[in-house]
Amino acid sequence: MKINVLNCNNINQGSIEIRENRLNIKYAMNGTGKSTIAKAIYLSSTGGDLKSLKSFDRTYYLVRLPVHPRAEAIDQVTPQVAPQVTPQVRALLDVIINEMDRESLQQALGLKARKNFRLLYLTPALDAGYIEMTEPNSPKSPTQKYRLTEKGMELICPKP
Length: 160
What we know:
This protein is of the alpha+beta class.
């Protein structure tokens, strides 16, 4: 099971792999976020409030826990509530952290072709309102960056 943590205490972005039915030992130097990850996992799995973790001026927290493969499927989502998102847009939303420029996004996705990135990832995500430009009045600015919107955050981390 892979767990992703964004914007919790001193962790900008992190992930941890936990193997089922095995002893999992995670070690690192003091101050690297081991306790933060443990608290975030506990709070997320018990419905606790992540805001109890220190924010360090973060605008949001995201702890993404995968669904256990043996969990029962609960079909409560209607087609009107669950928007159709292409795998490319979903991949883009999963890698974006705070504000990122085009080059950083492409690198995070492992993409080299700028045109392919723009047509399949960036433009659809912008058009759907999942991400926004930091400089909307200057779309071709060399300092242009992109960030998740509330709609994008809700898609990758739905509220209960």
